[in-house]
Amino acid sequence: MFQEYCGTGPLNLSYFDTRINKNKIYKSIKFQTLSLPCFNIYRKLFYNSEGKKILPTNIENLLTSKGLAY
Fold first, then answer.
1. Which of 14, 61, 69, 70 has CA 20 to 30 A from 29's CA?
2. CA distance 15 to 10
3. Spatial CB neighbours of 32, under 8 Å, sequence gap ≥ 6
4. Which candidate, 4, 26, 22, places its Cα nearest to that of 13?
5. Which residues on adjacent β-strands are paired with residue 66?
6. What is the pTM of this model?
7. At 68, phi and psi to the nearest 5?
8. Which of 50, 51, 11 is nearest to 31 (CA)?
9. Which residues, at least 6 apart from 5, have a Cβ–Cβ distance to it below 8 Å?
């Protein structure tokens, strides 16, 4: 879905948590998008003027259940 906005493919990552009560492998997939003007709207939503990450006050209107899952 985001392939045209990425410079490289996704990375499969795994991390083994060695804590005694865990001893579990966590897996994730990571990708990075290119810095493109089409993403500026999201930067304005999720970062303040000083560049600090924020949570928009209307987040419930921005995310669907499927969007939250992604």
1. 61
2. 16
3. 6, 7, 8
4. 26
5. none
6. 0.56
7. -65, -35
8. 11
9. 33, 34, 36, 38, 39
Do residues 10 and 2 make contact, with C-beta atoms less than 8 angstroms apart?
no
What pLDDT score was predicted for residue 70? 78
Which residue, chain included where needed, has tokens 């897996």?
27
What does each C-alpha distance from 12 to 35, 42, 45, 54 come to in angstroms? Answer: 22, 25, 28, 28
Contacts 24+ apart (CB under 8 A), 27-31: 31/2, 31/6
Taking the C-alpha atoms of residue 3 and residue 15, their distance in angstroms, rounded to an integer, is 25
State pLDDT tens for residues 12-58: 999 999 988 888 999 999 999 999 999 999 899 999 999 999 999 99
* 14, 29 Cβ separation under 8 angstroms: no
